[in-house]
Amino acid sequence: MNTLRQFQIVAAAAEAATFSAAAAKLGITQPALSEAIRRLERELGVTLFERTTRSLRITDEGRRIAGIARDVMQDVERAMQRIAENALKGRVAIAALPSIACSALPAALAEFSRTYPDVVVSLHDVQHERAMTMLQDGEVDIAVTLKPAPSSDLSFEGVTFDTAHLVCRRDHPLARRRKVGWRDLAGHAFIGLTRISSVRRLTDAAFMHDDIVLTPRYDVEQVPSAVALVEAGLGVTALPSLTFAMFKGRSLVVRPLGDPVMRRHVGFVTRTSRTLPPFASALKQTIQVHLKKAVREA
């Protein structure tokens, strides 16, 4: 059976003065090259080279086969180049938590687009449950969100954790403390996120852990709405550190919440049955770098 390697050997031998020179160019031994040519001659039933103790001469049939070999190798090289170019083009859809879309993705997508200008990235900033639905329905390729419940259909790659913090006005009594516990929030008006939010599940788990009964004064769906109510002096709230990018420049104070420390595990969720495009690994790596940076700088 003729192989690309045999074609490569014939083309190199046709251009070289000796088999030894051709073998050196290909990085193989001279006996290995000679054997490959003899095998091809047997398969084709023709003599490609006339050999004597002093010289090597390519036959007319050998010259024709060598020309075909060169054409084949050039076609393969062009095909490989087209494959490599196509690996830098395409589309990918991402669903991400709004906090991640604000904190890490702007810089990550800007960096990625400079390296892969022909890749179109669609971004959907949605809540966790919606991200999971979009992923399972095939609307997106990657979800950058919280660790989901175990499933044979999904794969999770953890990247980092963000922790819950108190958010309050500078003139609030709790702002004077360097450390604040969840129990310290009792007795203060609390701005909560609605139950569709992953933040609400975080705060509910903390209050349940300490057996704290706290009814939010307001329940809102969006982090900016909760922040606006805090800024107006209507209460305090608790938010994960990745959400801080959503209210930069506000005259608010954030303090780590402890007893217990509550964290969200954030990373990439993909479907096990779906093969991602070649550039997806580079995209995930870029997002990972900026996601970790966003948590460090929060």
From TrEMBL:
GO terms for molecular function: DNA binding; DNA-binding transcription factor activity. Residues 1-59 form the HTH lysR-type domain. The keyword Transferase does not apply. Transmembrane segments: none annotated. Keywords: DNA-binding, Transcription, Transcription regulation. One of its GO terms (cellular component) is cytosol. NodD regulates the expression of the nodABCFE genes which encode other nodulation proteins. NodD is also a negative regulator of its own expression. Binds flavonoids as inducers. Belongs to the LysR transcriptional regulatory family. PANTHER family: HTH-TYPE TRANSCRIPTIONAL REGULATOR YBHD, LYSR FAMILY TRANSCRIPTIONAL REGULATOR. This is LysR family transcriptional regulator. It comes from Undibacter mobilis.
